[in-house]
Amino acid sequence: MAAADVRDMLDLPAEGQPRPHKKQKVVEKRPEGITRELFALLGERAPPIAISENRYKGRPKWMSKLRVRPWRMTPFSNSARSDGLILNHWQRQPEVSKAPALEGPAMEVDGPKEEENTPQALGQESLFAKYNIKARVPRHYTDEEYNRHLKNDDWSRQETDYLVDLVEEYDLRWVVIADRYDFQPQPVDAEANTGALVPAKRVRTMEQMKGRYYFVSASMLALEHPPSEMSEAEFDLHEKMMKFDADRERARKELAALQLNRTADEVREESILLEELKRITASEQEFINDRRELYTRLEVPVSVGNTTMYQSSQGLSQLLQTLLQADKTKKRRSILGAEAGAAASPASQTPTSNAPTNARDSRAGTPSTVAAAAAAAAGGAAGGPTNKKAIAAAAAAANKEAQQATKTLTATEESRYGVQHHERLAPGVQFRSDRAQKLTQAKSNVQTQKLAGALAELEVPLRLVMPTERVCKGFEKLIHSVNLLLDARKVAEKVESEIRVLEASRDAREAKDKDKEKPVKTEQQDDQLPPESTDTAAAANGTTTSTAGGDKNSAGDADSKAVEAPSTSQKRSASVLSNGSDKSSKRQRK
Amino acid sequence: MNSSIPPSAAEYGGDEVSAIVLDPGYSTTRAGFAGEDTPKSLIPTSYGKYSLDGHEKLIFGDDVFVTPRPGLSVHNPMGKDGIVEDWDMAEKLWEYSFTSRLTGAKPGNPLQNGLNDISEGDMAAEMEGVESSEDRPLADSPFLMSEPGWNPAKAREKTIEIAMEKWGTPAFYLARNGVLAAFAAGKASALVVDVGASNISVTPVHDGMILKRGVQHSPLGGDYISSQIRALFKSNSPQPITITPHYLISSKTAVDAGQPPQAKYKTFPPEKAPDASYRNLLEERTLSEFKECVVQVWPGPNKLSALGPNGVSNEEVARGTPGRPFEFPDGYNQVFGADRYRVVESLFDAKAAIPDPDSAFPAPTQAQTVPELIKNALNGVDVDIRPHLLANVVVTGASSLLYGFTDRLNQELMQTYPGPRVRISAPGNTAERRFGSWIGGSILASLGTFHQMWISKKEYDEHGPNIVEKRCK
């Protein structure tokens, strides 16, 4: 019955207002391809509340389309077995199955049974058959081989067979073999008749068994391939087996037993000793490390450069210049590390092994290495004044080391090699000749000249030709005595001049009385002068004139006069000296 | 891990063939499926025998403890040294152990299940034909059994005979329980110390094989400890303690410690009373409860009778420890002090045994104590593997659960062998300790590599029972 009929019956207006309303809603029907939720978001309406259901999340949908793969109790055999034992295990049915899955329980019962005994099902190889491994044992010997190569008085053929079988059975597990070894010699009838003595059951040790088996095995190996044709592995094996020493093995086992059965005290002692040993070895390593570090510090880098260029004085001065240069750059040393310093000096091609030390204390280390290299190169030539300290430090270190090294020298040896010991060393490098030279420099120029004069007179060169230690010592002594003499002469001259002044005054007084006595006095002085030098005579004249000129002139005045004439030659001063010395000697004689 | 994906066999090397593992012991018999972690079926090895209406009836399983039937006597098919004595009963008992819980009742022959009436003559005729391998209890399960290391060849042959011919198993293997216990501990080489009910055995195992010359056993097992406890009760100081099992007590009232029990006892007229062996069995149950609750092994470092490390006598120290109370079934209760150490001390020090002239156990010799057994076992094997064995001492067996046993054993071994490293591996889990050799069997029989070891029916038929000697080395 349609709605129209009902309306007719009830006299309702046909198809009235509500229809269009409904139609409106239908218009909003979402187009294909848009989900309801997304469509709901499109209009002005508020989004619908999402209702989340707590549902068990089963397997993904795509899985439910898969067919269930049943597990079946499947028979299988293991190819490691010879008897074809068929065992059953649960196995998943393979994916592809020709039969439709759901065929009813009756089919399922019958299905596998049909397959069960087909070879295909049994052909399923067990995964574990591959683990069926036997140890490789050599080929069994034949009677002939045994008689020719393997005969042994100690081992009968039966026992050897038994042993070889046992070894094969237990896969060379010697511990088990020795445990199960139980050979019962079967009495041969003939023997039993003659001897009638049952051979005593022998206890074979593992070593005996090993020895016998290795011998048999090695012999068989050698029979198969002569040792010359063996591969390396085979040959090794052969060698190892041939060299098996049962006695040594037994001794080793005895030791092992001793080791096992130690008493608690022995164990404690051993552990203490081990501890001690560990401590010693540990500290030894430390000691070695310390010593190595010390050596790297002390070691003077070996110069590999050519030193001939520094043998001449020109070369030396050049070195000095470079050193100075290096030192100047060092003053601004900040980033210029060891390498820069080392590079500054052409001579110091320091071995790289010293680099860490240099890098660590670049300030102290670098100049010293440079200086040391320089010193080594120059063989003790002059160091630059600015670098002196560093050179001295290096030299001192070297000296100290040398001292330590030569402590054992005897006195004669020391003198022979020129070894000397110093109480205290002045800083810096000094040359012996320099020191000798310094001695000739007196405080005043006059004095220096006098000294030079005296030396010239003694025919000693001012600069020593061979400034050895002894020569220098002698020179020092000489200078010392010359100085003494000079002092003495000074005093003598003073006294003499006083005398002269006094005499002059007396003369003047006497001249006042009688004027003629004066020329005699001058003559006397002229006589005393050496005749060979005219200059001296002139000077003497000067002196005499001065003394004669003014009686108020003192000896100090005479000295100052000599200062005023610095260009006076050595010869003159020498003569003066000799003069003085003669006079002093005369005085001494008096 | 997705349960729908089988674990790949290479992962754990397992490949189950639904084998059944049977581990018969003197006290209990364990049976279960290979691959499980505990035996499903655990029954006492003792069985009850009584006669009803002239027929002899047997009771297997735990039922034996329950009802004091008239004339019920309790027997054990195993000998004191763990070797089967009564083969017929052992077979029945073992069969019960796996049929009762594991293989279940087969759907019976419809001709026999009593629902179908068949005339007498027909039935007999049918019986002949139906008697096939399907009837055998183990027709579709490979069968692994354990045996003690000193099992004689005769007994082994008899075992395989039963399994193959009576039970119809398709494949059989006989493994030493020492080896199995080592496997359960995850070791192929170990020194297994098995403290059972009737025996303590020490088995050196190397690469999964026992070293026969090192196998040692002594009768100082759990039953010996029970006899020591009985001796202690006899000489108890306020009054000698008698054990009255529960079945003899109808009611009891609580009494103070040390006071005589106040209980009403059941009495059985002589013709209804069970055999003395039944009472003995139930007394043993009380005693094992006593062992679990009270008995303690002196933990060392020295013997109980010796001086301790600080110069004080160990017994003095033991007396100082708080006692442990125990209430007997009849309500008598007492606190046990230093005595609880004495009952097990003879496992380590033969001189400390409590003398008891009535006991079935002769006084132990020093060679029977655990440290001596281990020493002898080690002396029986090659010196090269001794340190390795000492580093792998596996302790198993229910009696090793005595409180402090492994500590003491460790102390003793450290004293005997101060040099090598001694390491005892004893599972803390009670079940793993009790069923050690069964669990090892379960592991072994579920291994894929073990498939080639089974002795198949075919091989048995070919070589006879002697094959067990060749294959189960």
UniProtKB/TrEMBL annotation, chain A:
One of its GO terms (biological process) is chromatin remodeling. GO terms for molecular function: methyltransferase activity; transcription corepressor activity. Residues 241-270 form a coiled coil. Transmembrane segments: none annotated. Keywords: Activator, Chromatin regulator, Coiled coil, DNA damage, DNA repair, Methyltransferase, Nucleus, Transcription, Transcription regulation, Transferase. The keyword Hydrolase does not apply. Residues 566-582 have a biased composition (Polar residues). Residues 338-357, 533-551 have a biased composition (Low complexity). Residues 1-10, 507-524 have a biased composition (Basic and acidic residues). Residues 147-213 form the Myb-like domain. Signal peptide: none annotated. Residues 1-30, 338-367, 507-590 are annotated as: Disordered. It is found in: Nucleus. One of its GO terms (cellular component) is Swr1 complex. The keyword Cell membrane does not apply. Component of the SWR1 chromatin-remodeling complex and of the NuA4 histone acetyltransferase complex. Belongs to the SWC4 family. Component of the SWR1 complex which mediates the ATP-dependent exchange of histone H2A for the H2A variant HZT1 leading to transcriptional regulation of selected genes by chromatin remodeling. Component of the NuA4 histone acetyltransferase complex which is involved in transcriptional activation of selected genes principally by acetylation of nucleosomal histone H4 and H2A. The NuA4 complex is also involved in DNA repair. This is SWR1-complex protein 4. It comes from Aspergillus campestris (strain IBT 28561). The lineage of its organism: Eukaryota, Fungi, Dikarya, Ascomycota, Pezizomycotina.
From TrEMBL, chain B:
It is found in: Nucleus. SUPFAM superfamilies: Actin-like ATPase domain (SSF53067). It holds the Pfam family Actin. Its main location: nucleus. One of its GO terms (molecular function) is transferase activity. SMART domains: ACTIN (SM00268). CDD domains: ASKHA_NBD_Arp4_ACTL6-like (cd13395). GO terms for biological process: chromatin organization; DNA repair. Keywords: Activator, Chromatin regulator, DNA damage, DNA repair, Nucleus, Transcription, Transcription regulation. InterPro entries: Actin, Actin_CS, ATPase_NBD. One of its GO terms (cellular component) is nucleus. Chromatin interaction component of the NuA4 histone acetyltransferase complex which is involved in transcriptional activation of selected genes principally by acetylation of nucleosomal histone H4 and H2A. The NuA4 complex is also involved in DNA repair. Is required for NuA4 complex integrity. Component of the SWR1 complex which mediates the ATP-dependent exchange of histone H2A for the H2A variant HZT1 leading to transcriptional regulation of selected genes by chromatin remodeling. Component of the INO80 complex which remodels chromatin by shifting nucleosomes and is involved in DNA repair. Belongs to the actin family. ARP4 subfamily. Component of the NuA4 histone acetyltransferase complex, of the INO80 chromatin remodeling complex, and of the SWR1 chromatin remodeling complex. This is Actin-related protein 4.
